[in-house]
Amino acid sequence: MLPLSHSQLAIIKQLSKTYIWWQTPDEAVKNPYRVIAQVMELGTAEDTQLLYKSVGKGVFKDVLDHAIAGWFTPKSWNFWHIICRTDEEQQQNIFNVPPLPKRNLPNVL
């Protein structure tokens, strides 16, 4: 995980009140990537733009790289992978989107 500044964590904590409603903001900010993923998945344009400007493309890409199964729908997974492409990938018009993360469930038969 990439390090986040106090000001970035403050914005994440504020957004967690809306997007991680099942936890207190203090609990939610302990897993900032979960909050960021939830905003990427469900956020309003304003909230998503605020967060993107605060933490940057690199953190959004890192959230995708460390995502856990269930954090993203296929639509937003594809969208954010295209948005977070490197400059080189954009110039070459590469759309290399990895598969969504999957849960590894034990075989119980």
Task: Write a structural description.
This protein is an all-alpha fold. It has one domain. It is built from six helices and no strands. It has helices spanning 6-19, 25-28, 32-42, 45-65, 74-83, 87-91. Helix 3 packs across helix 4 and helix 4 packs across helix 5. The protein is globular. The termini are far apart. The mean pLDDT is 92.
Summarize this, please?
The protein is an all-alpha fold and 109 residues long. It is built from six helices and no strands.
Low-confidence stretches: none
The gross shape turns out to be: globular
How much helix, percentage-wise, in residues? 55-70%
Give the overall average pLDDT.
Answer: 92
* N-to-C series of helices and strands: HHHHHH
Number of separate domains: 1
Radius of gyration: 15 Å
Count up the helices. 6
Largest sheet: none
Distance between the termini: 36 Å
Total number of β-strand segments? 0
Helices and strands, with pairings:
Layout: H1 6-19, H2 25-28, H3 32-42, H4 45-65, H5 74-83, H6 87-91
Helix pairs in contact: 1-3, 1-4, 3-4, 4-5
Properties at a glance:
single chain; 109 residues; mainly alpha; 60% helix; globular
